Amino acid sequence: MKVARRREAMLKAVLSGMTEVSELCEHFDMSEATVRRDLRALADERLILRTYGGAASVGKHAPEESLEQRRQSFQAEKDAIGHAAMAHVRPGDTIFLDSGTTTAALARALAQAGQHDIRVVTNNLLAVQALAGSSVPLTLIGGEVREPSMSTLGPIAHLALTRVTVDKAFLGADGVVPGRGLCEATADQAYLKECLMRQAASLFVLVTADKLNRDSQQHWAPIDKPWTLITNASASHAGLQAFRSLAGLTIETISVPGESAH
Questions:
Q1: Cα(79)–Cα(7) distance, rounded to whole angstroms?
Q2: How far apart are CA 69 and CA 188, in angstroms?
Q3: Are 10 and 24 in contact (CB under 8 A)?
Q4: In Å, how far from its chain's centre is CA 70?
């Protein structure tokens, strides 16, 4: 069995509750060294957690990362995803940039390109910082400022979204899980994404590979229309396998300059 397929099968086994090394060795008829090596590789991709004597799924709720932590993590990957997402923006488009540092990378790419023939609507104050003073027309959705994500949300933001429609919405998330949707730390964040998805003709989810199958937060925004996933995960990345059977999903994998494939 090829390594990628074997690790995909092992990931499914761990997620289904088979968490002991000895149990996995018996199930797959493999040596302990091979099982431990595969578990380490899956843990490095943040698909599972390594434990003494085995592994556990990543489903336990985790503290939300600070804004500074998110700004400093996976910068090259986020910039590459932002540039790839910009290729979907066409002259005359009105687009929405969701909260998050990956969508902020798209804002920086748009500002550098100097696109003046589109309009950006956003609740992302990091995107506003990137676009303010550029030639890109910009509309900020009001509401309560949430400092950990530097975004606006709440009833005023929800009301504002009912008054606009956009051609394309570019969304970020704390995690994305097949069949469940986008994972967020608060109900307000999840509900705003749900409102936004209703107002957009096309949906694009921008996430780094570590966010795939990540359900470390408690609140969910289901995705109920066709969408495109843009990620730096390689085509053979184990975390992508569960997404391939989803109806209405287009997967776009991008490479990061200066890095080898995952």
A1: 29
A2: 22
A3: yes
A4: 12
Hey, what domains does the chain have and what are their CATH numbers? 3-57 (1.10.10), 67-253 (3.40.50.1360)
Q: Does the pLDDT value for residue 66 go beyond 70? A: no
User: Could you report how far apart the first and last alpha carbons of the chain are, in Å?
Assistant: 19
Residues 6+ away with beta carbon under 8 Å from 230: 81, 84, 85, 204, 205, 206, 207, 252, 254
Cα 91 to chain centroid distance, Å, stands at 26
Q: Which two tokens stand for residue 139?
A: 């509309």
Q: Could you report the per-residue pLDDT of 91-110, keeping only the tens digit for each?
A: 999 999 999 999 999 999 99
Other beta carbons within 10 angstroms of residue 40's beta carbon come to 12
- Residue tagged 């704390």 (tokens): 174
Structure tokens at 137: 């027309």
Backbone angles phi, psi at 41, to 5 degrees: -65, -40
How many helices (H) and strands (E) would you count in the chain?
Answer: 9, 14
pTM for this prediction: 0.75
Q: Is 215 helix (H, G, I), strand (E, B) or coil?
A: coil
Residue 4 to residue 142: CA distance in whole angstroms: 46
User: Under a CB-based contact definition with an 8 Å cutoff, are residues 255 and 232 in contact?
Assistant: yes
